[in-house]
Description:
Blueprint: H1 6-39, H2 50-83
Helix pairs in contact: 1-2
Amino acid sequence: MESLNAQEQRELTTRMEKKQMKEFMNMYSNLVQRCFDDCVNDFTTKSLHAREEGCVMRCVDKYMKGSERLGQRFQEQNASMMQSGQIPGR
């Protein structure tokens, strides 16, 4: 990134921020859809029943822990590849 001028660095940073936001929104959307589909099944009232609310809370917790673990494994693999001299993506 040092080889880029200030304008190019700002543009690259802006693009990276937009991509991260898009990925976050996609993950959030997938989480909402999955937990809703798995947990909510009574549409006779406008609020969640205690059972549904508990299911949603467990679903979100499980999804977040899974995503966190996946990120950790990715970082571990990337570090391992860097130590062994392999360059990811090449």
